Amino acid sequence: IGVLTSGGDSPGMNAAIRAVVRLGIDKGLEVWGIERGFEGLLDGELRIMDRGSVGDILHRGGTVLKTARSERFMDPKWVDKAAELLKALDIGGLVVIGGDGSLHGGLELAERGITVMGLPGTIDNDLNYTDFTIGFDTAVSTVLEAVSKIRDTSSAHDRTSVIEVMGRHCGDIALYAALAGGAECALLPEKEEDISGVCRKIIEGSNRGKLHSIIIKAEGTATPGDKLVKMIEEGTGKETKLVVLSYLQRGGSPTMSDRLLATLCAEKAVNLLAEDSCSKAIGISGGAIVAYDLADALKMPKVFDENLYSMIDALSK
Ligand code: F6P
Q1: How confident is the model at residue 60 (pLDDT cuts 50, 70, 90)?
Q2: Residue 138, H or E segment
Q3: Shortest-distance Cα residue to atom 10 of ligand 1
Q4: Collapsing DSSP states into helix, strand and coil, what is residue 244?
Q5: Are the CB atoms for 22 and 14 separated by under 8 Å?
Q6: What are the pLDDT digits (tens) for 180-209?
Q7: Residue among 9, 26, 100, 124 flagged as catalytic
Q8: What is the 3-state composition of the chain as percent helix, strand, coil, each rounded to the nearest 5?
Q9: Which residue, among 292, 261, 262, has the nearest Cα to 277 in the 3D structure?
Q10: For an engineered disulfide with 68, which of 18, 36, 186, 260 has Cβ 3.0 to 4.6 Å away?
């Protein structure tokens, strides 16, 4: 079997690689590590992994296999080439650890006769078939640490802080960080922007004696951060600062939840490959590890959690 990480890295990818390698070897499988995702596959950057090759990585962010976003893999002729290469090496099963784009890449290979196990590795939590993705919990925890620090200085200066977090199409990092971090508002790509509503909320808070306001904005919302800050300053008369957390959210040691999710998903993938299963997407639903048909999983619609969203407002009044 082969294992690769693809797309944006996420904390917990290493925990998944480690478990695929060690549990795969335990099942009598030969495990190949493919570097730089589909790009490395096309360039033949593969090596056999032994148990020692994944030592001392469980607690590390990033991915020891490296990762890439592959333009070439968008072209069917390169996907054909990748499938031929895997077959020539007798690699019939492939564990793809990545987000939506990566799992779609995996599906292309599955349609060419490779058995693909998709593991949800992305901080964005944008894979609809799973409640959580590997790396999301760590990313939100990192955002929460930043929120606490920014709140201290915000209160000291009686300021508003707009904190921009990752998420181009999915606002889950902003949604969960706003709820768990006690923000006034979350601005998400899934919701229409109401900047005058945000200003109203800040003024109401200030009138009640609140010393700071925290607004968490996902990067994929309509108004860019610098413009938003100006609009809030104009609408509230209060000094407003922008903090863009950017790649800080992608690094760091994975939390217990991410290590566990990565390990359990990897275990499921290896067991299914050893049983000669068809291609699956593996994730977690209602606390249990699940495996759905890969093509079906990638068609599942996202359900936006309105309750979580409305609680942010209710809790910060
Ligand atoms: O998909 C994960 C993600 O971190 C997004 O939240 C972000 O928009 C994007 O990747 C950044 O991608 P890149 O690493 O290619 O700049």
Answers
A1: very high
A2: helix 136-157
A3: 8
A4: strand
A5: no
A6: 999 999 999 999 999 999 999 999 999 999
A7: 124
A8: 45, 20, 35
A9: 292
A10: 36
